[in-house]
Amino acid sequence: MEQRRITVIRGDGIGPSIVDAAVAVLDHAGCGFAYDYVEGGLTALENTGELLPQETLDAIERNKVALKGPLTTPIGKGFSSINVSLRQQFQLYANVRPVISFAGTKARYENIDIITVRENTEGMYSGRGQTVSDDDTVAEALSVISRGGAERILRFAFDLAQREGRRKVTVVHKANILKSTSGLFLRVAREIAANYPHIETVEMIVDNACMQLVMNPEQFDVIVTTNLFGDILSDLCAGLVGGLGMAPGANIGADCAIFEAVHGSAPDIAGKNIANPTSVILAACQMLDYLDMGDRAGKIRGALRSVIAKGEKTTGDLGGTASTTEFTQALIEAL
Fold first, then answer.
1. Which of 140, 214, 220, 262 has its CA 20 to 30 A from that of 230?
2. 221, 231, 289, 317: which one is catalytic?
3. Is residue 93 annotated as a catalytic residue, yes or no?
4. CA nearest to 39, candidates 69, 9, 61
5. 207 is catalytic
6. Among the options 125, 289, 299, 313, which is catalytic?
7. Would you kindly state one Gene Ontology biological process term found in this protein's UniProt entry (predicted)?
8. Most confident of 138-142, 197-201, 266-270
């Protein structure tokens, strides 16, 4: 039987160290993958002159599944976001960000289990209509929500809830003010929800959703929303469980998916062997779920839970003093 090939982008800053940790864990869990390593971000720019070389795009297209470390897009130099480019290139319309409480972190809550499903290709992040007046006094951008795009992400969220036995989907919007874009999204949400009568549907305005997530996050199960709101809310959710170092992300399309650490490249600690690899390891678990290897994903998550709860071999952001490699070795031993 031919090995399943995975495209791996180690990324910038702390990316190589945490991605290498995730690959070591996957190998030790007996996943049996073969890896095609390609470049992206500043590393690729320095080596090839491009942020996203054609070789990288070809490898993602060929293997249909990729594991990605954090990539840096240069600010203010005319470069478009690498992550947005990848999502649009491969029509990765669903951004899935689960957060779950782990004993042993510095989180303020103990029983969080929320999945944020964010539309990934439309809305304010589409890049359409961005202009700045010649005198630099007026800037404009265009937000576009299509019925097809809304139906696709809403159906994805309700199907996810159904598949995972979730009890409730919260549709987050701003239809009271953004009557065109958010209004269309909310109307489509009501149509889709009618097909899932066994799942409770709650509608919530985005500013209230932010407040409710801080005050009573246990009420949330699955959240589905548009691109900009989803970006903000998913980071807020990460803060409920200890920060971005504990939050993985999946970008899923019809026939292709990219799994990633959702935090930045943290160049200030690059090369110091102190970064927490949990985010990208949990992203690798999402990848295993996607590939119908949930048994191995469960074992890795269980080992993570054990190591973090003990606290003896955790990284600084989790209150410990272990290095990235020591944390990874403890995880492998727990496996």
1. 140
2. 231
3. no
4. 9
5. yes
6. 125
7. isocitrate metabolic process
8. 197-201
